[in-house]
Amino acid sequence: MQHEETAASCANEAVAALRAALGADIVSLPDEFGGRQFADWSGTPSTEPVALIRPRTTEEVATALRICHQFRQPVVTQGGMTGHAGGACVLGGEVALSVERMNGVVEIDPVSATLTVLAGTPLQVVQEAADHAGFMFALDLGARGSCTIGGNIATNAGGNRVIRYGMMRDQVLDVEAVLADGSVIGGQRKMIKNNTGYDLRNLLAGSEGTLAVITRAVLRLRAKPRAISTAWCGMPNYAAVTTLLGRAQERLPAGVSAFEVMWPSYCDFVRQRLPELRVPLASDHAFYVLLESCGADPERQSAAFEEFLADMLDAGVIADAAIAQSDADAAAFWAIRDAPAEYPRLIPGRISFDISFAVAQAGDAAQRCDERLRARWPQATILVYGHLGDGNLHVVVQEPGWTDDAIAEVKRVVYELTGEMGGSVSAEHGIGEEKLSVLGLSRSPAELAAMKAIKLALDPHNILNPGKVIAG
Amino acid sequence: MQHEETAASCANEAVAALRAALGADIVSLPDEFGGRQFADWSGTPSTEPVALIRPRTTEEVATALRICHQFRQPVVTQGGMTGHAGGACVLGGEVALSVERMNGVVEIDPVSATLTVLAGTPLQVVQEAADHAGFMFALDLGARGSCTIGGNIATNAGGNRVIRYGMMRDQVLDVEAVLADGSVIGGQRKMIKNNTGYDLRNLLAGSEGTLAVITRAVLRLRAKPRAISTAWCGMPNYAAVTTLLGRAQERLPAGVSAFEVMWPSYCDFVRQRLPELRVPLASDHAFYVLLESCGADPERQSAAFEEFLADMLDAGVIADAAIAQSDADAAAFWAIRDAPAEYPRLIPGRISFDISFAVAQAGDAAQRCDERLRARWPQATILVYGHLGDGNLHVVVQEPGWTDDAIAEVKRVVYELTGEMGGSVSAEHGIGEEKLSVLGLSRSPAELAAMKAIKLALDPHNILNPGKVIAG
């Protein structure tokens, strides 16, 4: 009780100093929050912060952190609040720093193919600005309208095009960020090659608000694809799936831009629960692959794509295939892969996993996972699908009426298997608060110690997003 | 004097402990070095180490570092000794740890498209193993026969194909490394997506032996190109050069795998000093571009490449062009770009710069650099060329009989200009010892402080490659 009072008065002192330095417009207090929500999409419990800071400039962020550093006041940075791991949730006692007012594209440099943007800008705004300038911004994910560039960098977001363009870190040339003590690094450089010491940009990408507040970034733009070829393939077995992946990378002139694999249970689920969607192939197959190739030359690409699929059919790699003849066809194929948007309605209370393995092991991992879960919960809904070109599996498990204990047990089964098989407990969603307890299944004690040493070096008072990524 | 004696005896105590723990086969003393050289390709003065450690296993590296950590004994890690920045030179008092015995490909996983390799393996061995397995390893540079994978990672090596495949860090899925205290991290993971906390792999890539000794890596393999299209283009002005780059990225079906730009002085130099090389176009142009596109579909790619160049000629973007009709033609084009291999013979005592800028600014930077140097040294040989698709310029300056003062002054002129224009003082060669004094032109005091904090967090006694990258 004594301790809580001390903490509260300390927080108040910090808040008072923040409000004095930055004003009431930037620093608001709980009675001024007006019903604002502070939770993200993960379902992680989130409380109210002791204050909300909404700076307009990097200098204001620096002032805020300097004061928080001085008063040992914890800070959680918030962007679009679309995270899946609770990284932006308020655990208790933090001030929330929202980058919502740092919103806008600063500059597009078409010759250097770069876009400079403030951290609070939604991903979709960046995509549209790039498109308007004749380029493509390569990151794409379902939350595009809400998620922010700062959050995309802080979580090193993934999405559908990683196989071709990489994760968010691969779209970033420089990051401007405010460190815990208020010092400002980076943010103006447009160079692709820059070997001048440690790569702070890649250290911040994926650090989930624990090392700095990202305020601005220089992003890399890509040539806009002028031709998109899409096919829906029925596959006889997992070996055929990986063979198709390898051959497609070797033979498709424009490479592979998406390689989405769905296990039969996933397609059965779509057929039964979303009958308005048309599953392209009538017959049943052991696996389904959505193959996409994005390139520059519509006619030649289309001919090469059809030739490739015909060869794969002849060779028995593919059992059956449908090639999209129109944008509407392609959209219909993607609608099946995008069915997870309907999960909240169709399978409430589901448990979702975002894990990854070596491509060679992902099929085995999925099978073992299914077997172990089935052995315990024969009636459960178990859906497996993913960006297999990157080794990334999404596993969704649900049984109506499950208790908290059962949920914990499902997680234990899946994460332990992931650890056993040398996989990653978080392929693209990050660690946040939610996966902190299983991080040790994918990272060794020496790695966790190194991460903690870096954290303490850059944030000695542990004010930045405590309780996330780094164990206390 | 007293201090030096203490240091010497301390070193001896460490060496004695190393020898006791690892044996004389692994730890050799100066009188056993047998004339071995300890300098790299940079020309940075290098002395003899107090001992040479040649471990065979990661465990032996760990034992060595544990002892060095305990005795505060500095360590310089050595690979192929082909660095350009003095990062592997012995400054005085260090033990040298050579990874030469940790040599070999451990595993190729063709389904996951990965290759696991020990750090001391030469790059060329990896390239050949990948090729033999039906893949390509994407990093390539002139020193391929001598440089090692560990050194490639430690320096984040660049080379000719960065525009398509990225730097060395983009070829690495996981790194096994021994930290200063002897703890071992990473080295087994084959996942492309893995968002489990801080990206230690990217932190080690480019850290030049100051954070860890790299012992093993999991590398990413790429599909082997089945068709290579190459052209030599004469360009009317710099705007046309950047226009060609943008259009090629947008329109070539297989994208751009090399975009090498040469300024006229460079081609004149080749014509005059290497008359055995055939410069493809007879007429003079403001710039020359070597354009390459690597893809999967020989016939269609070749047709599309020719069509693209014809369009660029029609549009006046290109003034004149020669398309390679054979491998011999392509080799002849590349021979001009590879003329720097003849520098030691043709322009001894030259000063070489490896700098980068935003693509939009690189032309202006080169011109200003030339003007400032010419104003002071009208007779100097000044050659400019580079991987312009990445903003990377190589500038070579020479005048016979220059004094040390003149050399220092030339460096000042070029690096100050680089700093003024927000460029990088080291695009691909790293900092080592040689560029430490100019690092502050490309990195802010806050960034240097953050780098130093990370260094001290992971290597509190500063035993790993002291005097390199991080100012003392």
UniProtKB/TrEMBL annotation, chains A, B:
Organism: Paraburkholderia monticola
Domain of life: Bacteria
Keywords on record: FAD, Flavoprotein, Oxidoreductase
GO BP field: respiratory electron transport chain
Name the UniProt record assigns to this protein: FAD-linked oxidase
Family in the record: Belongs to the FAD-binding oxidoreductase/transferase type 4 family.
Cofactor(s) the record lists: FAD
Domain FAD-binding PCMH-type: 45-224
InterPro entries per the UniProt record, alphabetical: FAD-bd_oxidored_4_C, FAD-bd_PCMH, FAD-bd_PCMH-like_sf, FAD-bd_PCMH_sub2, FAD-linked_Oxase-like_C, FAD-oxidored/transferase_4, Oxid_FAD_bind_N, Vanillyl_alc_oxidase_C-sub2
GO molecular function ontology, one term from the record: FAD binding
